[in-house]
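Troubleshooting: if your tokenizer reports a length mismatch, compare against these two reference records.
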Amino acid sequence: MQEQRDAVRRFTRTLALRPAIELQPATEDEPYGWAQPPDRADEFRADTPAVPCVVISLARERSGRLLREARRTQLLPPLVNPWGTLPAYGELLTRRPRPLAVLDVPDEGCADELGQRVGILQRLAPVTVLAPEGTCPAGLLEAGATNVLPRGMPVEELAARLMADQRWVARAAREPLSRKQKPTPMPPGPLPEHASQRVLLTLVLADPRPWCCHDLTLLLGSAEQPLTRAALRARMPRLEPHLGRLGLALRRTGGWGRFSYLVVPSPELTPALCHAA
């Protein structure tokens, strides 16, 4: 028993000689009161530079009032793009850092196929949806939205939440892309003459997954009227010369009114498939 008491005293003296561990109070930058590892220390910083916004509306004439009020916060850009605006898509695809797409849905009358539109748009850039009151956010978040905000909230709160989304996108952009996520660079030489062809080329190179014809016609049409499949079939083969300079080709698969386009290495295509694409 005496030996045990002596061992306890020696251990106590050892602890007394060690410097005390000082726990710092929690701060906004370090919410749990612990120092972050050096490579992650800035993930919680509120002053992380925000990415820009590109605003796309499903009813531009009904978006004006809210967005004019929001611009007083100097957060949103002055331009509101209608759905289907090709330069807006081009900016989402090519601008660095990648912008945040803000999809404004002024009322329930504009919400047809909203989940599908969100799923398509998030393939171009992160998406925050400004939704009318009563919209269930679950389906839109499942479709790939970064956030769903009620557009009826006070403008100052809306601006603060959008700024938080922009900072989150900026932090996420620092993460290295996997090999499958990295977009294929644009081909050397002249690009397509028409803006629609340039956007299409950037689109198929930016995302290696197949593009369904219904998604493409919805993306490239207006909010009221999708692009016709006949027009899409006429546009897609015009990308072949530009893809060929990268050793790529366009494969068309499917049928019965539903088909998809996929960029593949040229040697994988037989002459028959090349002709069909």
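Reference record two:
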Amino acid sequence: MRLLVAAAALIATGDALNLPVEGMSRRAAFAKAAALIPLVPLAAFAELKQASDAEVYARADAGDLNAARVIERAKAGKLVDGSSATCSELKDIIAVDRRALRFEKDKLDAFADGEEEGRRLDDQKKIVEDAEKAIDAQIKKLEALEKSKSCPELKQASDREVYERADDNQLGIARVIERAKSGTLVDGSGATCSELEKIISIDKEAIQFEKDKLEAMPNDPAQKKVVADAEKAIEAQIKKLNGKRKEKNCN
């Protein structure tokens, strides 16, 4: 609803602002809608705890969240409330919050190796520490909201690690193959469009690796069957995840 209101504002004000709304892609329209949220009457967002939440939800709908914005909101004490978010929005917000949290933790670790000394370093560390604590508390709060809203849970516990690795660009072929062998390939239902794209990409690399492996292997029927079965499982997985992308209207 929030995004529809903002999108309506985009259409209504397009001529006045000389915005090329015709022929605009869905993602571009969402981005423009997010930018136009301040132009929408505040009454349209009466259910929000704070006005800035509207932009966060719109960016979540558009797949346009990023860790840098999370950190700045944490510093300003304006992390999204979340109570008005949909389950899909909550999942995306939590995912980007986790990226922001890891970034701040890495930043704190880097301070230990820095050359700056004295009050300036202490002040910087406190800012980062405060942001880290705020984001950590925020994640726990939003996860509790997910439960209170009865949002769909992960099909299997191992899926969360896969999604987090996708967010951090740390997916690996070897892990895909091992999951295929153990029958624990990621379900994909709880993945964002970006995560699905990355998982599918690494799955394709894993298939090629298994094909090459089959060609190079000695004539051992038992070993070849293990590799062939893993290859088939990953191929089926890619088809399944592409289906999830269509369900989620990913670009």
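Descriptive notes for reference record two:
- Residues 8-19, 39-46 have pLDDT under 50 and may be disordered.
- Residues 119-148 form the longest helix (30 residues).
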